[in-house]
Design goal:
three-stranded antiparallel β-sheet, 513 residues, 40% helix, binds zinc ion
């Protein structure tokens, strides 16, 4: 059976989802999980886009040893130099360079002739090849490009040393038959195509990203570019879990496989949702809350029916185990530390000590703590530092007669500050008070509450979306008390807005692929 190379771009294209920016510790944590999931290539970022991107790609390159680490770069010497500087310490570095090949992009965006695009491709791929053997070339907006010109560009890129050529449906415009034909055309009309791996990169604007990717795979592509939960620009990218489980479930029909450890799919999905603040829709294929919801009904019928009457995949195959290890108030430091290690956290002793204190506090309120609770604790306590604002104390009075009032104590850049304010409800009072204390004029675009595990005593997980001066951030907070969770989410959103302000990045249209 042929392997399909899984190229994960959650950290690069996924991060381009509005508000999904991640800080360096969060990216490192996600990269570690992606390595455990078994992706073949991990696109860590776009180092020339911002200093923050550079730092994250460099940190990932130093830490992740078992997976190819790719850096995105435009077809310019400066971008490629910057990309290479960030990944040169990786065990298996890959430079991924791209240029637009559609007439509309060449004319309006690049202001380059076809000949100039060919020349630029030749020079920059050759330059990238002088730095590493592992070079990927992408023809941005390939699906709207002239087919023969596209073949010519790929031929030149392969001659210049590209080992992977990628065919992006940048704007999510293709439909499956058409996209499969495009791939077949490139395969049949690019003379040296066998010297490179063909790849596709699809967007989900018409809900066809997974279908288009499969059509590409059937036409001979052996690398698929995907993201966890399908996050990404606009409607997102092809979702890793959908593609991988399609190949896994229908492997005899497709005669293909991947190297993904499918049991890590669900934990990875949870982690991405938690870090980015982008909630998975309940009816999402494979990882949505309802994806296996008929399970209870089948259990009621006991073993009388065969599970396979209704289930094409088993929940356990994607890592949704019902008998997960549970920790409680009697669990000791050793068991706690072991669980952190099993979840992929390699923390310093003082971090473990701090977390263990918080774990005990939480375990006093709830009988059982699941992996999701522990992940949430780490996200709250470890991944967020260094934050500019931190919640120290919150007291809220509300009810049918009182005017909702919040008293808040914050740490603002190392200084304690206290404030109080009113609102139309307890959460409004809390947000007003915090906004006044930090001098923020950010608007609240969205507010949502979720229970992260089942049961009345579940921790509340609050997500906020904030906007200020055109920048959008997502903030997330968890706590058994939803008003406290809301305050944490709001503060997290403000910290992320601050991060975005201090790390000005390339404009969206400069970093599309
Ligand atoms: Zn993309």
């Amino acid at each position: 059976m042929d392997h399909v190379i899984i190229f994960d771009t959650t950290l690069r294209d996924g991060e381009q989802s509005p508000g999904a920016s991640m800080n360096v510790p969060e990216k490192l944590r996600l990269a570690t999980q992606l390595e455990k999931l078994g992706v073949d290539v991990l696109e860590a970022g776009f180092p020339a886009a911002s200093p923050g991107d550079f730092e994250a790609v460099q940190a990932i390159s130093k830490k992740i040893r078992g997976v190819q680490v790719a850096a995105l770069a435009r077809t310019s010497k400066e971008d490629i130099e910057r990309g290479w500087a960030a990944i040169r310490d990786a065990a298996k570095p890959r430079i991924h360079t791209f240029i637009a090949t559609s007439d509309i992009h060449m004319k309006h965006k690049l202001k380059m002739s076809r000949d100039k695009v060919i020349q630029t491709t030749l020079e920059t791929v050759r330059y990238a090849k002088s730095l590493t053997d592992n070079v990927e070339f992408s023809a941005e907006d390939a699906s709207r490009s002239d087919r023969d010109f596209l073949c010519r560009v790929f031929e030149v890129a392969i001659d210049a040393g590209a080992t992977t050529v990628n065919i992006p449906d940048t704007v999510g415009y293709s439909i499956p038959d058409e996209f499969g034909e495009l791939v077949a055309y490139i395969r049949d009309h690019t003379p040296n195509i066998r010297k490179a791996v063909m790849s596709v990169h699809c967007h989900n604007d018409l809900g066809l990203a997974t279908a288009n990717t499969l059509a590409g795979v059937k036409a001979g592509v052996r690398q698929a570019e995907v993201t966890i939960n399908g996050v990404g620009e606009r409607a997102g990218n092809t979702s890793l879990e959908e593609l991988v489980m399609s190949i896994h479930t229908r492997s005899s029909l497709l005669d293909l496989c991947t190297r993904i450890n499918t049991r890590e799919i669900y934990p990875t999905s949870r982690l991405v949702s938690m870090i980015t603040g982008i909630i998975v829709q309940p009816n999402k294929a494979v990882v949505g809350a309802n994806a296996f919801a008929h399970e209870a009904g089948i259990h009621q019928d006991g073993v009388l029916k065969n599970r396979m009457t209704y289930e094409i995949m088993e929940p356990a195959t994607v890592g949704l185990d019902t008998n997960r290890l549970v920790l409680g108030k009697h669990s000791g430091r050793h068991a706690f530390r072991q669980r952190l290690n099993d979840l992929g956290y390699d923390l310093e002793k003082k971090e473990v000590d701090r977390l263990f204190g918080k774990f005990k506090e939480l375990a006093d309120k709830r009988k059982e703590l699941l992996d999701e609770d522990i992940e949430a604790l780490v996200a709250e306590e470890i991944l967020r530092i260094p934050d500019v604002y931190k919640l120290l104390y919150l007291n809220v009075v509300s009810g049918t007669v009182a005017v909702p009032t919040a008293t808040v104590k914050l740490m603002i850049e190392g200084q304690e500050a206290q404030g109080a304010g009113f609102g139309i409800g307890p959460i409004d009072a809390t947000f007003n008070t915090i906004a006044k204390m930090v001098g923020s004029s950010a608007g609240l675009l969205r507010f949502s509450v979720n229970a992260i595990t089942g049961g009345m005593d579940a921790q509340g997980e609050v997500t906020v979306r904030l906007q200020e001066n055109g920048l959008v951030s997502l903030g997330k907070g968890t706590d058994p008390d939803i008003i406290t969770a809301s305050a944490k989410a709001y503060i997290n959103g403000l910290n992320r807005l601050g991060y975005l302000k201090n790390n000005p990045s390339l404009k969206a249209e400069e970093r599309r692929l």
